[in-house]
Amino acid sequence: METILIIVLGITFVVLVSIRAVRNLQWVRFGEAFGKQGEALLDDYTYLTEQGITCRVEHGLPTGRLFRPLAKNLDDRVALFVHRKDEQKARQLLK
Fold it and tell me: Distance between CA atoms of 93 and 24, rounded to whole angstroms?
């Protein structure tokens, strides 16, 4: 019984990690900045979304709760991601 539970948990883990990896492959990072420089990325995000580009912004570091206290000085991080299908059009718009 324990062996079956371990196998099920292992398969579940592999499936979840695979789904996360496939989702991350759909995005291209266009920039990453801290503080005031991050505001320029937010302006780029606004401009790109107005032009119909699929993009997303990530604030802070994607850390777990355990490591959050260690990353306090990195909370002002901004990262801009563009969907892979819109990558070329976004590069042309940001030239």
Answer: 23
- The string of DSSP codes covering 5-43 is HHHHHHHHHHHHHHHHHHHHHTEEEEEEEETHHHHHHHH
- d(CA 36, CA 42) in angstroms, rounded, equals 10
Specify the 3-state DSSP secondary structure of 12: helix
What does the alpha-carbon distance between residue 10 and residue 74 come to, in Å, rounded to a whole number?
33
Tens of pLDDT, residues 4-32? 999 999 999 999 998 888 877 899 998 88
Strand partners, 8: none
3-state secondary structure of 80: strand
**77 close to 61: Cβ distance less than 8 angstroms:** yes
Nearest alpha carbon to residue 61 among 42, 45, 77, 40: 77
